[in-house]
Write a structure and sequence with these properties.
With about 575 residues, the protein is of the alpha/beta class. It has 15 helices and 28 strands. The radius of gyration is 30 Å and the shape is globular.
Length: about 575
């Protein structure tokens, strides 16, 4: 670390530096780095980020609206802290890996391997964004972060600090390429990457997953669903010495073909079915093996006709029904393992992502961008989301996360929504991400044939700015530019009426939204509300935090009033302090 020269520092600067050093010294364990100012963050001291509508795609009015935001993700996340605080179910990001090969830019300059502050700049860059993203997750939310060995150690410590070490859910290992590797790799070939998983607070994963090979084992069906038979033998580490209570014999009526009770090693019998033919045999497990469960569980499940004895090659085998789905509709498959390729999941490598983007954007070739394979992102989203979840990717790049969400919805009839945030560096948003999402929604034709499209909806926004000065004029300008943010917050985009100094919107669920931009719009807006006779969420311009309730007393039962821009300013005040 470079030694600082304090000779010409003012008293105030020295006090501030001492407080900073003291704070670092008090940190007993974790990651410490040299903080570097970032232009996009410094800009927010003078300008406040807002949204401006760019384009929209509407193919099915009954489907939800997905979001694409073009702009620096620090500004996009700041806006989302107003519109979506505590609303996101799952976040997936694939940030720059900081390999020193032109993949990471800080303050408009690529960071190379020789930069003494290479790691500090990357941590400083990511820390701000992870702090903002944490506030977006609901209490059951989960974040997945792709990374490789260049910043894995730093990222783990950083996430422990931001999300809490107790909220670390695990580290997934994904095989990104095959082959013999590169000749530039002198020591060993790095053919894998990582996905760190953290929860917000009470987050969880649907641990049960199922590959195609395992699905084929579910050959049977009854009134409770599709199932297979699995043996009731415990795992190898569950030996007779360790679990003597699971070492017992099954009393089986061979002629009547039914279980009647149990017997232990001292020949003590426990009969629960006295009606039998008299031809009783004992079924024991060989070697060190034990039953998977205790006698009471076997008796309970047998009476429910979930357990059955099979005779195979003069041997009797006890099996239990294993249903494909549980009562909540979640898959009863194999528990997720940390090495993804070991789970019969058909997870592709980088080559799959390259092939997919070639097919969609043909004849243009953006394979150099090496997007993640659709199968990987789809699996991660599936591990967490229900059919109505909101998924955020604020390093959206080529748009694979949006593709994965739409593909999952098509498979299970879900209404998941995605929010993608990306800058337009190298025209990645305008030439790759948006065209890809547009083709996937509308459908396309290429040399392989026709794709009909997912038939959903999209709003495409760009980040914009207003003056940060909290003067009356500054507040008025923020209100005038807040329309898209408010529509996004309330999920109401369809214009019903554009009046004099007010607007009315609605959504597919018949939710109504009103925005009043100044005093002149109040009375005209009230007349329209009385005519429509629907419950409204109303954002009304106010110079303070009051919502001017006295002016709406005559329609109080029809309006839920919210002041603007005070709440927006309070959010930004906390972020940009």
């Amino acid at each position: 670390m470079v030694k600082k020269d304090y000779t010409n520092w003012s008293k105030e600067e020295l006090i501030k530096e001492a407080e900073k050093k003291d704070k670092l010294l008090k940190k007993k364990y974790g990651i410490i780095w040299e903080s570097k100012p970032e232009k996009v963050a410094e800009l927010c001291k003078e300008k406040l980020p807002v949204l401006a509508e760019e384009k929209e795609i509407e193919t099915d009015k009954k489907k939800p609206v997905n979001i694409l935001i073009e702009g620096d993700n620090y500004h996009a996340l700041s806006v989302l802290n107003y519109t979506h605080k505590g609303k996101i179910d799952v976040i997936y990001i694939d940030p720059p890996y900081n390999r020193g090969t032109g993949d990471f830019k800080y303050n408009d300059k690529y960071v190379d391997r020789e930069d003494a502050y290479r790691h500090s700049k990357w941590i400083n860059f990511l820390e701000k964004r992870l702090i903002l993203s944490k506030k977006l997750l609901n209490n059951q939310g989960v974040i997945f972060i792709s990374i490789d060995e260049n910043e894995f150690a730093q990222l783990k410590l950083l996430c422990d600090d931001i999300f809490g070490e107790k909220n670390f859910m695990g580290n997934l290992i994904w095989k990104r390429r095959g082959g013999i590797g590169s000749f530039a790799e002198k020591s060993l070939t790095q053919n894998h990457e990582y996905v760190l998983v953290y929860k917000r607070r009470d987050g969880f994963l649907y641990h049960k997953i199922l590959g195609e090979k395992r699905k084929k084992q579910f050959k049977y069906k009854d009134k409770n669903g599709i199932y297979r038979w699995i043996e009731l033998v415990g795992p190898s580490q569950q030996t007779k010495e360790r679990r003597p209570n699971l070492d017992y014999g099954i009393l089986y009526d061979k002629n009547g073909k039914k279980i009647i009770g149990f017997i232990d090693r001292s020949n003590k019998k426990d009969i629960f079915n006295n009606k039998h033919s008299g031809k009783i045999i004992e079924i024991w497990l060989d070697g060190k093996a034990t039953w998977l469960v205790g006698k009471n569980i076997i008796q309970k499940y047998y009476k429910k006709e979930l357990i059955k004895v099979f005779e195979e090659k003069n041997k009797f085998v006890l099996r239990i029904k294993n249903y494909l789905y549980d009562k909540k509709g979640n898959i009863n498959g194999a528990i997720l393992k940390s090495i993804l390729t070991d789970n019969d999941l058909n997870i592709g490598m980088n080559a799959e992502g390259t092939k997919q983007i070639k097919e969609i954007l043909y004849p243009k070739d953006y394979s150099r961008m090496k997007p993640k394979p659709l199968s990987l992102i789809e699996l991660l989203i599936h591990l967490k989301t229900n059919k109505n979840s909101i998924v955020l990717d604020f390093f959206a790049g080529t748009g694979t996360t949006g593709h994965a969400v739409m593909n999952l919805n098509k498979k299970d009839g879900g209404n998941r929504r995605f929010i993608l945030c990306t800058n337009n560096e190298d025209n990645i948003c305008t030439e790759v991400c948006f065209p890809r999402i547009k083709k996937l929604i509308n459908g396309y034709k290429n040399i392989l044939g026709n794709f009909d499209g997912f038939k959903t909806n999209l709003k495409y926004f760009k980040t914009d700015f207003v003056d940060a000065k909290a003067t009356d004029m500054g507040k008025k300008k923020l209100v005038d530019k807040s329309t898209e943010m408010i529509c996004l917050k309330e999920d109401c985009f369809k214009r019903v009426l554009v009046g004099h100094n007010f607007r009315i919107f609605k959504n597919n669920q018949e939710k109504y939204l009103g925005i009043i931009y100044d005093d002149d719009g109040v009375e005209l807006f009230k007349k329209k509300v009385k005519k429509i006779k629907k419950k409204f969420v109303v954002y009304v311009f106010s110079l303070d935090e009051g919502a001017r309730e006295e002016e709406f007393e005559d329609i109080a039962e029809l309006v839920d009033l919210k002041p603007i821009p005070a709440v927006i300013l309070n959010v930004y005040k906390r972020i940009f302090k």
